[in-house]
Amino acid sequence: MLFQKEFSVSDIQTSAPAAATVSKNKSAFKPVHAIRGMNDILPPESALWEWLEEKVRTVMQQWSYRNVRTPVLEHTGLFVRGLGEVTDIVEKEMYSFQDRADKQGDADHLSLRPEGTAGVVRAVSEHSYLYDGGKRLYYIAPMFRRERPQRGRYRQFHQVGAEALGFAGPEVDAEMILLAHELWQQIGLKDVSLQINSLGQPSERQRHREALVAYFEAHQDQLDEDAKRRLHSNPLRILDTKNPAMQELAAQAPKLMDYLGEESLKHFEQVQAILRAQGVTWQINPRLVRGLDYYNLTVFEFVSEALGSQGTICGGGRYDYLIEQIGGKAAPAVGWAFGVERVLELIKEQDLVPAAPVPDVYAIVPEATALPQAMALLTALRRQGIKAQLHTSADSAQGMGSFKSQFKRADASGATWALVFGGDELDRGEVAVKALRHTQAQTSFALANVDALLAHLQAPEAQ
Ligand code: ATP
Ligand code: MG
């Protein structure tokens, strides 16, 4: 049984109404819609996703980052512990539910992952994956947050994330920033600016926190509800406020940078020296604290002006205490994640969309009797790297469609060539090849001689 006691199925339409009540052109069922803020990605849009994913994979391999995949569902406690109880995500954005009880009567509390780091850290500690040294990992995966859907903000969205675990040095913070920067170069993105900050170490943050609380307490009357709530639980987050009325107050607040000790400052300096040597430019943003609790030392964001208020495309930083916090053996780490939807939006904004993929050949098949031979040749060509599309009819009772309509389809497909499996040609054991994008005389090739056909299709003058 799919639905048990927990669900009422009475108002879910599961079967079609009686035939008599169904009008001719309408489906018998009420349409089912996607969930708000969760998008379908269909062609040609999906080709853009594949293109971006391919770029990511290439760059990750060049930088020696290996792919990691973790479950979409995790115990809610992982995120509560990992992200911090008073973060936006844990307080109000998670999709959480009580699982059904197992035989022992225990019901787990589960959540769809709102971000990728906690799951990766859990997996790494669970498998003692750092036993022989640090590791570099990346993922491309869907994330879920129950936010108000708007441009650049969805309830299911996708992140590309990179994590370098088990490395303490500032060169890894710099490598991470350079890695993201390189991705923008490879994609061709322009006008992405880098902001960095250092959050220091917990003891330094503690002293700053005391100064911050004292400052905000002295300005109680100017605090909004969110800030009042966070004053004693997480005052650093007040600096991250999006409320315009509180910008001035936040700007004048004590700066964490002034509370950093020698070691932390040295770490931050070295990160910048490495970036400087590669001509990367950045701004230090003392108010950059990031939305999650787990960061220390370097934090950074890549921001675009072109995306309105959803301008942050990538964010990350060092999180040396997270692994231990979720119960693993203490190890330092750095990571970032970028929002795929926001980066794609920017790609479109900047006219960087690559050409959609098209087939090399389109098979025109006037009679269904020719299908077995046509399809056998297409398989042989595909094995040799040719992208081939078969003409298919919507309703086989109507036949394959006229020559004219098939050629129209062939043209619309963007294919370079039409392979025509006409009756006369097949009788001679041949297929006709017609150029669709250039003026080259129609030729015929023996079905048995795939190599000669292949050479013709791949000849440089045909491209
Ligand atoms: P924001 O301040 O915009 O809410 P965030 O700090 O919550 O961002 P992170 O948790 O750092 O974001 O996630 C990294 C990236 O993932 C963001 O920079 C953004 O590009 C993307 N992202 C985050 N939330 C969403 C969302 N709801 N829809 C689409 N992309 C998102
Ligand atoms: Mg957010």
Automatic annotation (TrEMBL):
Q: What is its EC number?
A: 6.1.1.21
What biological-process GO terms show up in the record?
Answer: histidyl-tRNA aminoacylation
Task: Report the subcellular localization.
Answer: Cytoplasm
Cross-referenced CDD domains: HisRS-like_core (cd00773)
| Highest taxon, organism lineage | Bacteria
Question: Which one of the record's GO molecular function terms can you name?
Answer: histidine-tRNA ligase activity
Domain called Aminoacyl-transfer RNA synthetases class-II family profile: residue spans: 52-366
**Where does it primarily localize?**
cytoplasm
Q: Name one GO cellular component term.
A: cytoplasm
Q: Which family does it belong to?
A: Belongs to the class-II aminoacyl-tRNA synthetase family.
This one is known as: Histidine--tRNA ligase
Q: Which organism is it from?
A: Lampropedia aestuarii
Lineage, top ranks: Bacteria, Pseudomonadati, Pseudomonadota, Betaproteobacteria, Burkholderiales
